[in-house]
Amino acid sequence: MSTHSIAGIVAFNVFLLVVGIAVLFGLRGWGSWNELLRLVGFAYMLGVAAIGVIFVIELVVGLDLSLVTILSTGFGLIFLGALFGRALGHRLPAARLPLEGISLQASVFGALAIVYAEALFRSGRLAGLYEFDGWAFWIPKAKAIYFFGGIDRQFFEQLPGPSYPPLVPALEAAAFRFMGSPDVVTLHLQFWFLFVGFTAALVGLLAPRVPPLLLWPPILLLAATSHVLVYALQAQGDFLLDELLAVAALLVGLWLVERQPWQLAGATLLFAAATST
């Protein structure tokens, strides 16, 4: 694992976040920069879902998932997000410092979450590829997409789980492109970013609706469960599927109460990504 690989995986996830912010702008916009900061995890998950679904479509029709294709897909989604947002009347708010209104309780719990995330990062940055599913077919599929540009049908059919949708291998192959090599050790950090984004999405969506003392303890307990510690950083599709379904189900629950169209639209996108995972 090299500094170059870490920089590449960070750049890839910043790219996903920028795409997600554009998708969020297209779906609902934001009333203030403080609100965008609160929803940054949700925006990231939207970016993962949107670009992941498009990657699957591109692979199915036979496009080469090169760096040019990856960047073009992302910038295309950014353009469409901005276009739809403007058409729906969404506008950027006036420039203001986005740190107003954070309570002391939320700050303390947020600091604990940051400490935990840092420890999980250190655990993942040198994690080995030990899981059978990971080295048997998730990573080989990602490497095949990385080296050959697309889906090699004959090779995929010889692996276990040949009918699994390719969203996760596509994301892994895109991460390899940004890293410059198929670094399967640093790749574990991609799943760290996914877990952090998932957790931030839950907090961001629930924070205006649930007091910090009722919101943060369950989130921290969830993050510290043995299931998360075992599966969150594994280079395979199982935990990402859980994350996508959980955020989508939360949006459906919010829609049943509040009936906001963006909630149902976001859930639809996340469910589509889960189906492709």
What would your notes on this structure say?
The structure is a single chain. It contains 13 helices and no strands. The chain has helices spanning 3-27, 33-38, 40-60, 67-87, 104-124, 132-148, 153-157, 167-179, 188-206, 212-223, 226-231, 238-258, 261-275. It is globular. By secondary structure, the protein is mainly α. The mean pLDDT is 92.
Mean pLDDT, to the nearest integer, reads: 92
**Main β-sheet: number of strands, strand sense, barrel status?**
none
Low-confidence stretches: none
How many beta-strand elements?
0
Distance between the termini: 27 Å
Percentage of residues in DSSP E strands = under 5%
Radius of gyration: 18 Å
Note the run of SSEs as H and E.
HHHHHHHHHHHHH
Helix content: over 70%
Summing up helix and strand content along with how strands pair, one would put the structural category as mainly alpha
Q: How would you sum up the global shape?
A: globular
Secondary structure tally, helices: 13
Secondary structure layout plus pairing:
Blueprint: H1 3-27, H2 33-38, H3 40-60, H4 67-87, H5 104-124, H6 132-148, H7 153-157, H8 167-179, H9 188-206, H10 212-223, H11 226-231, H12 238-258, H13 261-275
